[in-house]
Amino acid sequence: MPVTVNHDPAQQRFTTVVDGVEAELEYQLRGDQLVIAHTGVPEAIGGRGIASDLVRAAFEYARQAGYKVRPACSYAAAWAERHPEYSQLLA
């Protein structure tokens, strides 16, 4: 079941809190690209698909805002390969 993901554009991050533990995705905007720099899910809440929910939220935000996505973190890159429905967003 997807978690609720919050977006903080001023800090360029997406976050969620599960069982009192925060997970995050950090990005940078570079021109027309949203560059996913880091996806972090603490071990205490790992294995629940939380990182996937964070990356999906970032891709959906990019789609709505008209950005291309460059998944610079290894998790986001692997996620993009597993989700070809987002391939048109890749930079």
UniProtKB/TrEMBL annotation:
Keyword terms, alphabetized: Transferase
Domain N-acetyltransferase, residue spans: 6-91
GO molecular function: transferase activity
Entry superkingdom: Bacteria
Protein name per the record: N-acetyltransferase
Organism field: Lysobacter enzymogenes
